[in-house]
Design a protein that fits this description.
By secondary structure, this protein is mostly helical. It contains eight helices and no strands.
């Protein structure tokens, strides 16, 4: 398996997932939850998210086969969702709406889902399967979960260190990257589907 490891693929998958998860952009949400007295376990959040990503990575494909949907078709659909998420990040608009759940423990809802392992991130995970080898994607997921753990644990320190301006700038920067990724995913896979029809 390690023979398939490629630094470029790993880094590309890492950046795509980092952008769609946008954990740095979630710092204000995490801080707001803590101020309301909601408990968030950084380790549990990272581990649960990792399990969700890995399980969906493998079972998601079986679900697609169950509904007779190939990975290229799913990648095209995924590219449209990534496109919408990128627009949200760049234009400061809200298209996907999330319900706030009551309860003291906010680790699973809303931190793990939908902030970390939300619909956009899970869709992206399956969409990039057509672009990168499995080992590179899974390592990129694991690396992102380490960052998720560190950001949640050090949220207050990061806010003071980076400041709202830098966090805002990072959101815009990764929004543009996601926009480019969505276009590439769409054009690559739509071309493949069109060639199959011919």
């Amino acid at each position: 398996m390690m023979n398939l490891f490629d630094w470029q693929q790993f880094f590309s998958a890492f950046v795509v997932l980092f952008a769609i998860i946008d954990i740095t952009g979630s710092i204000p949400v995490i801080l707001a939850l803590k101020k309301k007295g909601r408990k968030i376990s950084p380790l549990r959040a990272a581990l649960i998210s990792l399990v969700m990503f890995v399980v969906f990575f493998f079972i998601g494909d079986a679900l697609l086969q169950l509904f007779h949907v190939d990975i290229s078709s799913f990648a095209v659909a995924g590219s449209l969702i990534i496109f919408i998420v990128a627009l949200e990040m760049i234009l400061d608009i809200e298209i996907f709406r999330y319900n706030d759940e009551s309860g003291k423990d906010a680790t699973f809802v809303p931190v793990v889902f939908p902030l970390v392992a939300g619909a956009g991130a899970l869709t992206t995970l399956l969409s990039i399967r057509s672009q990168y080898d499995t080992v590179n994607i899974l390592l990129a997921v694991a690396a992102n979960m380490i960052i998720v753990y560190l950001v949640i644990r050090l949220a207050k320190q990061l806010e003071r260190l980076l400041g709202p301006g830098v966090i805002y700038m990072l959101q815009k920067f990764f929004g543009i990257i996601l926009l480019a990724v969505s276009v590439k995913l769409f054009t690559t896979n739509i071309t493949f589907l069109v060639e199959q029809i011919k």
